[in-house]
Design a protein that fits this description.
This protein has a domain of about 110 residues. Helices cover about 80% and strands about 0% of the residues. It has 6 helices and no strands. Helix 1 crosses helix 5 and helix 3 packs across helix 5.
Length: about 210
């Protein structure tokens, strides 16, 4: 049976072995090998070589474990697990000891640590990377704070206007009640003056 592989039967067996061991993470192994070869071609020294090796190993293991945690999908008609044998063993062992949430946390921490060990990442570089987003967030914060200040000022102005309207309404009601109390007395006084004039008596406060 002819192997449908660019590197023939040998390539098919190596690919099958890597897929069985590492699962879909095997696709990342050529990238790591290519990065190493690129360093050698450019004759550039590999700084902290053992640290990079440890980071690469940790990256492969964490990705294989994460693949098993995320999905139980078995590619190529169930030929192998998405995380391979290593990912399955690590995921089952960690879940037994730490439960799913703890396993996810440990796997995530290992993944971040592996990226830190493999790259030129540093806190100084992180500060430079985050300076742009941080400036944007500060600008958004200033806009938000200004909007809240304007909103509070408008709310205070509306409250002041409501208080003034309420005060004016109460004063108008008070004036209406005062006039309502004075109206019967004025009517009675006018009636008394009219009756006195009819009887020929000089009304109060008037000269005959």
């Amino acid at each position: 049976m002819r192997a449908h592989n660019l590197t023939g039967v040998a390539g098919a067996h190596v690919a099958d072995l890597l897929f069985q061991i590492f699962g879909l993470t095997a696709f990342g192994l050529p990238v790591l090998v290519w990065a190493l070869a690129w360093k050698w071609i450019r004759s550039r020294p590999i700084e902290a070589a053992w640290v990079r090796v440890g980071g690469s190993t940790l990256l492969v293991l964490s990705l294989s474990t994460g693949a098993c945690l995320i999905t139980s999908w078995r590619p190529w008609h169930g030929a192998f697990s998405s995380g391979g044998v290593i990912g399955t063993l690590l995921a089952d062992s960690l879940i037994t000891s730490l439960n799913p949430l703890g396993t996810a946390l440990v796997t995530g921490v290992c993944l971040i640590l592996s990226l830190y060990l493999l790259s030129t990442f540093s806190m100084t570089a992180l500060r430079g990377w985050l300076s742009g987003p941080r400036a944007v967030l500060h600008g958004i914060g200033r806009i938000w704070s200004g909007w809240r200040v304007r909103r509070r000022a408008k709310a205070a102005e509306r409250a002041r206007l409501r208080q003034e309207k309420e005060k004016a309404r109460k004063e108008a009601q008070k004036e209406e009640r005062r006039r309502a109390r004075q109206a019967p007395a004025e009517v009675a006084s006018a009636a008394a003056d009219f009756a006195a004039m009819g009887n020929g008596v000089c009304p109060r406060g008037r000269a005959r």
